[in-house]
Amino acid sequence: MDDLSFESVVEVPEPGSLALVLAGMGLAGAVRRRRSKH
Description:
mainly alpha; Ice-binding_C
């Protein structure tokens, strides 16, 4: 039982949520670059 609960906690987050986080970080970086150019 310990192995099962441990594995479920270590599981990788859903690909969709991971993509959302990466997209958000990319957007923030793009906005920063645009603002610094002004």
